[in-house]
Amino acid sequence: MAPPNFEYDFKDLAGNFHGKSSFNSGLYINGEFVEGVDKTTVEIVNPATGKPLSNIPAATDKDVDIAVRAAREAFETRWGTKVPPTERARLLFKLADLIEANADELAALESLNNGKAFAIARAVDLQGAIDTFRYYAGWADKVHGKTIEVNDTKFAYTRHEPIGVVGQITPWNFPLWMLSWKLAPALATGNTIVFKPSEWTPLTAIRVASLIEEVGFPRGVVNILTGIGNTAGAAISAHMGIDKVAFTGSTLVGRHILKSAANSNLKKVTLELGGKSPAIIWDDAELDTAVSWAAFGIGFNHGQTCCAGSRVFVHEKIYDTFLEKFTKKLKEIKVGDPFQPDTFQGPQVSETQYNRIMNHISIGKKEGATVHLGGERHGTEGFFIQPTIFTDVKPEMTIVKEEIFGPVVVLARFNNEEELIRLANDSVYGLAAAVFTKDVTRAIGITNRLKAGTVWVNCYNLLDVSVPFGGYKQSGIGRECGEYALANYTEVKAVHINLTGQPPI
Fold this sequence. Notes:
Blueprint: E1 5-9, E2 20-24, E3 27-29, E4 32-34, E5 41-46, E6 51-57, H1 61-77, H2 85-101, H3 103-114, H4 118-139, E7 147-151, E8 154-162, E9 165-169, H5 175-188, E10 192-196, H6 203-215, E11 222-224, H7 229-238, E12 244-248, H8 251-263, E13 268-272, E14 278-281, H9 287-299, E15 311-315, H10 319-331, H11 351-366, E16 370-373, E17 388-391, H12 398-401, E18 408-414, H13 417-424, E19 429-430, E20 432-436, H14 440-449, E21 454-457, E22 472-473, E23 476-477, E24 490-498
Parallel strand pairs: 9-10, 9-12, 10-11, 12-13, 14-15, 14-20, 15-18, 17-18, 20-21
Antiparallel strand pairs: 1-2, 3-4, 5-6, 7-8, 8-24, 13-23, 16-17, 19-22
Helix pairs in contact: 1-7, 2-4, 2-6, 3-4, 4-5, 9-10
């Protein structure tokens, strides 16, 4: 029996897409939509209402094995070095065009399944994905090796070759955008893919599978498997036929993947993991601008961002004024229906995530921090949480140490640079940070001392596909985006050619 279609009519919702979305919801393996060997399913939920949307196939290790074999056969016969890079570029450009042509529908699906505001999904997530596919389409024929001068008797050069079959696992906070960060550089460099989106937010990945089919990628090049992390995800990270795994998600799961990769075939691993990023507000900062960016730093995507500015350090000279303005700014955030045009913060992605955040808020209260704003449920339906500010925090508190992944921020004072650097770097994470000051010398000096993969100056949460993104310490291994990401998906082969024909002895 063929897998069922997912269908949803958006005609009664606000936003720019009022049509009906209908597409095959099966596992996409070797160019076909299938139910899966064991015909297992998983339920997906609308986080704005808490009500079920549909049941979709859930891949098992058997399905992963079939997909890996399809990807291997495609790599060895129809992709990789068997296809000119200009052809890979053509297909990636075409996929970007199709995503753009269906952007309103994809944004609506993202909002429905993830809970993020439709306007933000359309302007940020969709545009980011389109830009990413186009950016790496442009790189496809520009991944070059080097000739190396050795001496007159030897010619040496390097080749950058595709790794092979790549397993990719992405999170639920930016489903489509993260899909593009994974698929685009891997395909541009000639790899084949077994891709698993989060079981909570699979709809846009499934819809993109139908666009990949429409583009005409050779069968087996891209395989998209919906399923549970500890089943399908675990099978990907342990599979002996996968040459490299790329994961974005929690540090806890990243540890399991790294261990599984080591215990199997020592496959290559890149990890983009958690964060507890500091936003530093110096006493000479343009205050209203800093307040707005700090609010965006914690409020964007409902705080469900690995680089969220969840620790705000404010110079003691301006702390009280900043807190007053920051509180007013967070109170102005519109929390509600993601399809309303003025909504900025929708629901948290799931009941599980909602409960995790509320548990952290409860722990913060018990440990003696002050709930200055929020800290409660918003509304009576769905998984909405009020924007929350904690004050009177201490460095050892759980809410200061642990990633909450919600609209919860802690504020602390500092009075000198040495104290500030110690507090800002006092974390197992090192994904991002921000500095707000009018003094460019101070900004550069502090930036150089922060242990973070990305540092923003007088802004927050601004990303670009051409700029690398990744973390220090337990925030991950490797870099996404930019030219740097190409190294994640290539092997470097060194070739030595003896020009004399004679051995040295």
